[in-house]
Amino acid sequence: MDVMGEMADLFETGRFARSSGREEAGDEAQEAADEAAEEVRRRIAAEAGDVEAMSVLGAMLLRRGDLDGAESHLRAATAAGDRAAANNLGVLLHQRGYADEAAGWWRIAAVAGSCAAAHALGRHFRERGDEPAAEYWLRQSAEQGHVLGAYALADLLEHRGDGAGAERWMRAAAERGHREAAYRLARTLDRRAGRDLDDDGPGVVRSVTERGSRADRAEGSEEAEQWYRQAAARGHRRAALHLGAILEKRGELREAGRWYLTSAKDGEARAACALGFLLRDAGDTESAAVWWLRAAQDGDGNAANALGALHAERGEPQTAERWYRAALDAGDDNGAYNLGLLCAEQGRTAQAEQWYRRAAYAGHREAANALAILLLRGGDAAGAEPWFSKAAEVGSVDAAFNLGILHAGRGEDVAALRWYERAAAAGHTEAALQVGMARLRDGDEPEAERFLRCAAGGGSPEAAYRLATLLDARRPPAPAHELGEPAQEKTECEEWYERAASQGHRRAQVRVGMLAAARGDVVEAARWYREAAEAGSRNGAFNLGLLLAREGSEPEAVVWWRRAADAGHGRAALRLALVCARRGELDEGQRWADRAVSLGPREVAERAARLRDALRQELSA
To answer: Contact, 17 vs 6, CB < 8 A?
Structure first.
C-alpha cells in the first residue's frame, strides 16, 4: 500500500518538505551541511527530553531509510502523545511488513486528529476488503482537507458506483493540486462532453449525470482542458498526451507539439507516436522517424505501422515488412492488414489473402473489404459477399458500396440501392451518385437532386454533369444574344457544367462549349470543344469543326470532322460528304455519304442517302 505521498503528507509536518520546483535548488553541499547541523541540534534536544525534537528526528531518519535509528525516537515521542510520531511509526512498521501493528498506531494518531493517519488507515482497510471501514477513515481524512484522503475516497466511491460522490471528492483533490485527480476529473468531463479519447490508464470516474445540452457539453469540454493543463503542468504524462490531442484537433499545432514532446520525454509512447505524425505532416519525416522508432521500441503498434509505411514509400519492402510484423506482435491488427497490402503490391496474392484473413478475423473492417475484393477478382463472388457484409456491418463505407455493385451486377436493384444508400449516408461520393441516378430513373427529381448535390460536392464529375443537366432542363430558354451586348451571368447549371468540365468530363466540356457559343464567346467555346475532342469526344470534335468552319477555317474543320466521323459520328460523316461534293471529289464524297447512312441518326441517314444517290448519278452521267 502506497501511503507515502508528498513529503509533508508523510511526516505530517512541513518542516522538512522539499521545494516543489518553484524555487531554484541551492548548493547541494550546503544543503547537506545544513541538514546535518539540524540533525545534530534535534538529537541534542531529543536526548534532553524534547518530544517535538524526538518526533522530527525520527522523521528525518525515516526519510533517510534508517529504520532502526528512527524507531526508538518515534516510539519515545509517541509514548509522550505526539500524533505525528504515531503516524510515522505506523509508516515505519508498515515498511517493515507489520501491517496490523502499523494500523494500530495509525488509529491512535487518527483518533487524535491526524488526517494523514486517517488516510493511511483507510487505505489499510481497503486493501483488506473492509470497504465500510475504509470509507469511514478516508472520509475523516478528506473532510479535514487531506488531498490524498480526498483522492482515495473518490477512487473508492467510483469503484462502488457512486459517480456523483466520486466526482465531488475527485474535484476536491484536483483543486488541492493532486495531478492524478485532475487528470481523472478531466477524463470524466471529456466523456460527458462526448469527447472520449482512447486511454489505457486507471479507472475513470463515471458520473451519474445524464448528458446535457450542447452548451453544457461545450462547457464541460473547456473545463476538461483546464484540468488536463493542470495535471500536465504537474508532470502527468498522459494528461500532456490528451492535452496535445485536443490542441492538435483545434489546429494549434505548435502548442500541441510542445505537450506531445513533454509527454514523450517522460516515456509516453503514444505521445512519441503522435509527435511523429505531427512532424511528418510538417514535412520533417526524418525527425518523425526518430520519434516513431522510440515509440515502436516501447511497444507502440501504431508507430511500428508508421515506420513500415515510411519504409514502404521509400521502396524498402523488407524493412517495411519487419516493422509491420512488429506492429502485429504489439497487438495492432493494422500490422496484418498492412502486410496484406504489401504482399498484394508485390503480387504475392496467396500471402496477401492470408494476412487479410488474419486481420479480418480479428475484426479489421478494411481488411475484410480488401479480402472480399481479392476473392472477387479471383472469381469467388460467393466467398467475397460474406466478407463485404461483415465489413459493411461494422462500418466500412467502401464495403457497403461494393455490396451495392455486387447486387447490381446480379440485377438485384433493390438490394443494391439499399447498400448504395447506406454508403451514401456515410459520405461515399460514388454511392450518392448511384442513388441519385436511381432516383432519376424513378422520376423522383427532388431526391435525385439531393443525392447528386452530395456526390457533386464530394468531387464526382459525373454527378456534377448530371446535376447540371437536371437543373438545365428546368430553366427557361435564354434570350438570344446580340452582338455587342454584355454576356449574361452564368446560371447554377452552367457552374456545375464547368465544374465537371474542369475535372475532365467530356460531355460537360462539350456542353460548356455550347453554352459559351450561345453567349457569343467563340474563343471560350473553341477551347472547351478542343479539350473535349483531344480527350476523345466525337461530339467535341464535330462541334469544333462547325465552329472553325463558321470562322472560315474549313481545312482545319475537315480535320476534326474526319476525327469525329472515324469515331462514329454520322453528322460529321455527312459534313465531310458535302465538303467533298462541293470540291468535286465525288468518289470520296460518296464514301463518306455511305458512312453517314450507316451511322445515322435517321434524319442524317436520309439526307446522306439522297446525297449519295445524287453523287452516283453525277458519276454515271
So the answer is: yes
